[in-house]
């Protein structure tokens, strides 16, 4: 039975999916936009973020908010290590970089498996309870996740636009050799950007962790979803990513509410394939000069 | 005769060696399950070759090639499942009659042809949308990755038609006059198909078509500038690759006697990529040798330390990327090439020495002449 309320219910829970997707895809877009690197380890970095959350909240009993910060720091650190040890020496070799990040994802997955074991982990819900507005029930945690996602988006825009690091990053994205001429240490910018992008993956993983059972294989579906978002939103703007996440997330939950989750996935996939034919640069691409 | 033999690149000798090894493998007295595994590996070599055409030669990295492989495997799998009416996994879901769209698959020949044509058609469909638009190769990788993810979800979801996570069992080795082929006969059938595919690919890559494919990889805008339409070439090569992937699935499933959801997942697609990356891409030999090495390493190491296998694989891949970015065979070809150029350099230097000694003689002659001139 499809009623208006249930459609609205789906739209609201779609917001939650979208917010999580946005945080994950932001990290990918920042890294891809700056360095042209397809980070196949992004899904596994999310998984690491989720495990960090599990460890801090469930084992160490530290509040969830701190777990988010820890997840950001740990994955950011791993990201900077990946960049310095691997990506840097493969500069401007896209195929090798893709393979290398994939190798890293294999290693990360297995290392976490060896540390935490095969069984899935559950992260306790940090904010239990629901609120009901006009017949639509929203878990409190989802409200928090959406708000936090928007906060991350605003923070990223702020860092990009206002801070000196963000300006250096944009300068490097636009014209790497010119930025170097002006005294910007682009290799350091690369490291920090990769660390920030990876950190966002960690936060996304941490935000997802309480709503699912955490396992070592959880990363790859999210990697695919994030990539789809990137295709829709284009790789050039942060706002495009936000809208892309909104479209993919909403389409998934609305179509999923009307039929099944798999049908929704297939339909979204087909839409994206057609979209790539019509608007190859993504829906929110800036005009190319 | 000796000259033409010398002209054959070193990797073609390795190919022949590898195929001879494959052909005599059942005679070496290994246990039967090792020979069975080798049969699967040989089927997998066809798969690796099909991806090498796409990735190594044309530069299109597919992360969802196993889906095309699985289409072949699942078609033949369904064929043997519906021989005696609706199988258990269908009746469990309340389907007591074989659905009408499955009925043609009951005939093995039809199932085989569908298993070849379905992946081909799918590749054309996908290629039409991706290659006709002007997006970079990265998007092809992303879309194929999404394809692999969704295909797995789809098969898992369609429990009533695909038996979901359990996969399809009881796939027979193509019965000829009622009896399925014996294991050893099927081994040689698969090996023969692999050799045929290999020879076909050699001809394809040496043809004008293959050369255009390579130049698309190297510089697509220049190919366009020369008046070719890269999109058409990419679609055709993707279709050929899909056809061969379907063929390998059709060979692999009976060798394995089952096909499961794991064989079409992202993991399977990336596994074959690793095989090619380790062996070396763009020369066919890498695909063959890489598959042999990695598949055997997988089965032998998994017996020893199942938990660490994936870690080892990741580290191997990283080491290859850093120290042999061309893969093992690529490295060998490079070494042979540098030896060759050094030899020819030495030859040139030698002849230069002769020339300089000749010119020295001339100089002396000149001097003599000059002397005689001044003297005169």
What does the model show?
The complex is a heterodimer of chains A (289) and B (376). Helix content of chain A is 74%, strand content 4%. By secondary structure, chain A is mainly α. Chain A has a domain at 19-217. In chain A, the strands form 2 sheets. In chain A, strands 1-4 form a two-stranded antiparallel ribbon. Chain A has a two-stranded antiparallel ribbon with strand order 2-3. Chain B has 376 residues and is mostly helical. Chain B folds into 2 domains: 10-325, ABC transporter involved in vitamin B12 uptake, BtuC, CATH 1.10.3470; 329-376. Chain B contains 16 helices and 2 strands. Chain B has helices spanning 2-7, 10-24, 32-57, 65-81, 88-92, 108-132, 137-157, 159-162, 183-206, 208-218, 220-225, 230-256, 266-279, 285-304, 309-323, 327-375, and strands spanning 168-169, 258-259. Chain B has a two-stranded antiparallel sheet. In chain B, helix 3 crosses helix 13 (266-279), helix 13 (266-279) packs parallel to helix 16 (327-375) and helix 14 (285-304) crosses helix 16. Chain B starts with a helix and ends with a helix. Classes of the chains: A mainly alpha (289), B mainly alpha (376). The interface between A and B is large, with 44 and 39 residues.
